[in-house]
Amino acid sequence: MPNIKSFYVTVLSEALSPCEEFLAAGTNFGNVNIFNIKSLYEEDEHHGPRDHLTLPQKCFSVSNKPLQAMTSLNDNLLVGGKNCIEGFSWNQLILPQNSDQKVKSCWTVDLRLPTDFGTKETVDCMINGENFTAFAACGDNNIHHVDLEYGKVKHAFSGHTDFIHSMSLVGNQLSSASEDGTVCIWDTRKSKPVHVITPHLESKLNRPHLGKWVGAVAMNEDWLVCGGGPHLGLYHLRSLTMSKVLLEEDAHGVNNVMFHEDNIIVGLDGPFVYHCLFSGDITVKMPTTPLRVYSICLQKKDTNKLLFVGGSGGDVDICTSTKLQDQVVRCLS
Fold first, then answer.
1. Model-level pTM?
2. What is the layout of strands, in order, in the sheet containing 282-287?
3. Structural domains of the chain sorted by starting position, each given as residue range(s) with its CATH number in brackets
4. What angle do CA 153, 92, 42 make, to 5 degrees?
5. DSSP 18-73
6. Which residues contact 116 (CB under 8 A, 6 or more apart)?
């Protein structure tokens, strides 16, 4: 009889190893699942059953809370735990599972967050910075710039009034999208936002029935794209004017967005991933196994550019050339 928890697994975060041959997926049960991606695409000489390859080669617990923040930096997997960031060595994680050996973190950075019955001790989002640093958006509604080498918080960025879903960094410019309905743009040398975008105040973007929350933001040198309850909007970064409404016909909220070459990849609060152009034209509408997409992760080194899509249900879709669902792997509870 299957474990009933397995029916309620949700993939909230993903990260690739430096070699991009292994995938880490964080779940709502506080577990990290490690998948050997390379083995899925190796030729099977005997054409035997490969079902075991769709399960993680290693699964270990990090926290009793959902793992919403995860990233890779150098040879480390960074995981946002309770009031801390834990670092795990990829060299150890990619070794086959040893039932007698417990996976332990190599180091931990205490974020010293205020405690409020546990509600402020979470790490909701995390991205890499420069020189072995990370930006961690936490339950206190602040972004903490963390020096991982010395194990301390350098400084905090305050300006949001609710938890932060997403961040994007280009040079010294940081953007963050929040449940409070705003996108803050920061100079990383200052602690207060230099600009604030409020998408739901744009009549073309506003969707009152979905709310004002902004679930995703991405930025490059010239453009910023963001969405959530409001439609996905493309903003010119220098003038901060809204240039284009994207996916105007789709009725779902937006949970993920990223720039990739000439496309914008969008993960929805529904069973689809879109690829669209800056003009708004849709090039791909891909159905997904997860009924709600909460995490997307893209290979950057491999010529195939595999896209990994996780969300509700515990399955992770592996899409070849970022456009076609090819395989599905499953996280354990």
1. 0.93
2. 254-260, 263-268, 272-277, 282-287
3. 1-158 (2.130.10.10)
4. 125
5. TTSSEEEEEETTSEEEEEEHHHHTS--TT----GGGGS-SEEEE--SS----EEEE
6. none
pLDDT over 70 percentage in the chain: 93
Contact 331, 58 (CB under 8 A): no
Q: Using CA atoms, how far apart are residues 299 and 307, in angstroms rounded to an integer?
A: 6
49 contact partners, CB below 8 Å, separation of at least 6: none
Name the residue among 191, 300, 182, 159 with its Cα closest to residue 235: 182
pLDDT digits 0-9 by tens, 204-214? 999 999 999 99
In angstroms, rounded to a whole number, what is the distance separating the alpha carbons of residues 193 and 128? 19
Rounded CA separation 159/140 (Å) = 11
CA dist., res. 333 & res. 27, Å (int):
8
Evaluate whether 316 touches 14 at the Cβ level (below 8 Å). Answer: yes
d(CA 316, CA 66): 17
Amino acid at 186: W
The residue assigned the tokens 């909230």 is: 12
